[in-house]
Structure formats: structure tokens, C-alpha cells
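Problem 3 from the worked examples.
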Amino acid sequence: MNCKKHETAIVDLPCRIGEGTRIWHWVHVREDCKIGRDCSIGQCSYIDTGVVIGDNVKIQNSVNIYRGVIIEDDVFIGPSVTFTNVRKPWSHDPVDPTEYEPTIVKRGASIGANATILCGVTIGEYAMVGMGTVVNKNVPAYSLVVGNPMRIIRTDVPRGSR
């Protein structure tokens, strides 16, 4: 691994981590992950088995990214964002791996602090998810969504996206 990993971070092997990536205090990266180049994974974050993260992704502190999530290049994920991966979890039944629903965050998207991303959605290119938003359906490219449940409040191209 050609990355910087804090001594308190745990990286389960095998996994692939790109050059220049920084993994901070008390992060847990599970096996079979693919993390791109020049990423930053903030303290106390959890990256589950099989997660795919592109290049130049900034993940702030206390973010939970569960199995089935794919994050493309140049994405920002704010503090305490949580991704889900099963719609009907129960403590008494083990989850069948076929129940994991993939979630995709497209290139250049930005997700604000404390947002919750329900499984099975796609967040479009350069879309912006406001702080505390509950994303329960697909987010169109170049749009701004806020609220619980989310609603689209803008659909134009944000600055800096070209």
C-alpha cells in the first residue's frame, strides 16, 4: 500500500488502496474494498466489505459506507453521512446477500453532513445533497436536493462542475 494510514486505523486485507490516499484515526476499512488515488478518509469512518471508492474522494469524519455502495471520482461526503444497504433489516434474521441493494454516487457529487442515503438509489453527476437530507429516490444530475424526504429545489449546473 502506497498510502498514509494512521496507526489506529484498521485495514483488513486483501483490499486495494491507491497512491496518495490518507486514512485517518480510528478508521476501519474492511476486506475486498477498492479505494482510489488521492482520497481522504476521515477519522472514525467505516468502509464495509466490497465498497468501491474512486479517485480524489473526500470522506469526512464518522461516515458509514456499507456493502453495495459505489462512489465515483471527485465526490465529497460530509461528516456523519450514513449509507444503508438493506430496506428491511431484522436483528433475528441474517441478511441474505441478494438483499443488498446497490447505491451509486456519480462523479463530482457532494453530500452534506448528516445525510442518510437509502439503498438502491443513484445520486447523479455533480448533484448536491443538503445537510440532513434523507435521500429515498434517485437524485438527478446537477440538482440540489434537501429535506426529509428529499425534494428537488434546483436543477441547474452548479459552479465548478465543468
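Problem 4, a separate protein:
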Amino acid sequence: MNLFNQAAHWIATGIEILGIGIIVIGGVTASVLFLIELKKRKIFPEAYQKYRLRLGQGILLGLEFLVAADIIGTVAVDATFRNVGVLAAIVGLRTFLSFALEIEIKGRLPWKEKDGFDTRT
């Protein structure tokens, strides 16, 4: 393994760890804030909606980092047709998850304006 491949592997691993950390920290933060809001206001539906929003945002940001790590790890380190195909499947799945989370968080398609299509109606 040459120096470039080693560096790309370590960078990809670091970005993966960062992505996982963001998801974990986002989940813990969202959970703590949910419990605080629930105790303070005792309005479950409102606190729950904010919890889902914060949790979704943390997962979405973490997924972006994981996709970046997959791209670096596959293309820069070992760009065989098989690995690129696996990368395409992984990126496709994670992009779909990101897209679904974006709709869930905003309540509309990402390219629609705020007054446009609303999935909550």
C-alpha cells in the first residue's frame, strides 16, 4: 500500500468516526433536550416533534459524513469496478435515507418552496 492509499484510508476512517460521532452526539443531545422539555412543559406532542426534528438533523448530518467517507475509501483507495458498484449501492441507499429524512424534517420536498407541497397535510 503506497503512501497515498494509506493517507486516503486513514482520512476515510477518520471521517467515518466523525460521522458516527455526530449521529451519537445528535441522538444523545436530542434525547436530553426532549427529557428537559418534557419535564419543563409537560406537553408531549410538541416536545416529541422537536425531538424527532433534532434527531433527524443529527442522523442526516452524520449520513453526509458517512457518504463522504465511503467515496474517499472506495475511489481513492481501491477503485475496482466491483468496489465502485458497491459504492454506488451504498451511496444510493444513504442518499435515499437522507432524502426521506429531509422530507420528514421539513415536511416537504427539498426543492419545493415553503408554501409549496407539504407532506403533513
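Solution to problem 4. The mean pLDDT is 82. The chain is about 80% helix and 0% strand.
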